[in-house]
Write the structure tokens for this entry.
Amino acid sequence: MTTAEIIQLQKRIGTEPDGFWGPKSIAACQRHLRRFMPAENPWPKPDNKSMRAFYGDPGDESRLVNLPVAEFGVRYDGKPVRAIRCHERVADSLRLIFQEIASGPQAHIVREYAGCYNFRRMRGASAWSKHAWGAAIDFWPAKNGLWTHWPTTASMPIEVMEAFARQGWLPAGAFWGRDAMHMEATQ
């Protein structure tokens, strides 16, 4: 993002609009997104034990459903996507998120879909990826890669993160400072 875009973001999240993204802006952004989240967050903590208790075993494809998304213009590598395989417990929430994003000014984000269910471990770690449960989704990796810092380099719109936060999902860019393409149904 440009300095002017960071200033606009800082105004939106209620912190000093100085164009510098540091600890105060990070904390303000996380508070801003937490205010959108349900008081009783429906999702588990991100550790493997909590994930297993809530979602079952990673890779259990019997818990996956096909969420129809063609009406939202979802694309993967430029090709239309009819359905996304996700965990049955996140399907309704994910549908509401798609409805919100696809009907707003950030609709182009759903045309940059990059995956949901993927039975694998986290990159460089032994813990299971949230994708192994179908409880995470990625968008727009070309501008929001795994090691790309948000918002100084990555450019995932805060409006997209707010849509996920309204459903209790954790937007990685705002909470980890990187991997802004990644949203997961955890606390």
About this structure: Helices lie at 3-13, 23-36, 48-55, 91-102, 158-166, 172-176. The chain has a mean pLDDT of 96. The domain at 43-184 is CATH 3.30.1380 (Muramoyl-pentapeptide Carboxypeptidase; domain 2).
